[in-house]
Amino acid sequence: MIRARLLIKGRVQGVGYRANTRRMANHLKLKGWVRNLPNGDVEAVVEGCEPEVDRLIQWCHRGPTSAYVREIKVEKTEANHEFPDFRVKK
Description:
By secondary structure, the protein is an alpha+beta fold. The protein has a single domain, classed as Alpha-Beta Plaits (2-Layer Sandwich). Helix content is 27%, strand content 41%. It is built from two helices and five strands; from the N terminus they run βαββαββ. The protein has a five-stranded mixed sheet with strand order 4-1-3-2-5, covered by helices on one side. It is globular, with a radius of gyration of 12 Å.
């Protein structure tokens, strides 16, 4: 099990990015959260088996149809199992 922290830059707010990330994470049985940042970026923390986490990261490079992802920074560490599910943070 691993944890990945993602910082997603581009046109990623107001395009359904968080809701679609949650949908994909739930489909992959991942846990964690996603939220908008005040500067227009999106941040996500996700935990699960490495192949599924990597699939979510690949999806995040595209995002939903109306998003434009310019850059993603990813930090991987060991999972600490603190999340009961995957949710959108306000």
